[in-house]
Amino acid sequence: MYSKSSWGGPVDPFISVKFTDVGTEDEGDPIVSMVIFEWKDEDFIGIRPTPDSIQKIGICEPKQVEAGYCNETDIGEFVLAPNATQKSTNVIFTKPIHLKDTQPNLYPITKTGYYCVLTDKYTAQRYEAIVEFRNAYGELPATQIPKLPFYGGVTILYALASVYVSPTPLSHILSGRKDLNLTARWE
Fold first, then answer.
1. Rounded to two decimals, what is the model's pTM?
2. N or C, which end of the chain has less CB nearby within 10 Å?
């Protein structure tokens, strides 16, 4: 996604995550863990129990609190590496989502980058979410925006080429004249 300062546009870019009613009929308090981050900061999501571990600890659970990997206030959130907020290039937003009391979650885009939304079940059995990636310039995918100046230039070239290749029909149309030779009868 592009930041507003990169390409401009009338809207401040953001990522919106809204969870639907799927899973709210579950008993208890169904919770989904969510994290939004820029791809460069992926190394700060989860921690390895030992330096040579392949598997990372992802979601803060009571057993991770007992082991000291996260705090009790972080239960249901994704575990972040120590000092992740200071070391990361962008904000890392993690939150436990209580499905019976959901609100839209907005993540403002202040820097250009590749952003990720990661969700996982914590206590919920099933869930559904709608994610909107809103760029400053509208609904075009971010990969199409750098092509806009090229498309504008090609459009001008096509217009100039069409005038150069066939100026006679264009001059008749612009002047409002009809070619009398087209209506002549041959006998």
1. 0.75
2. C
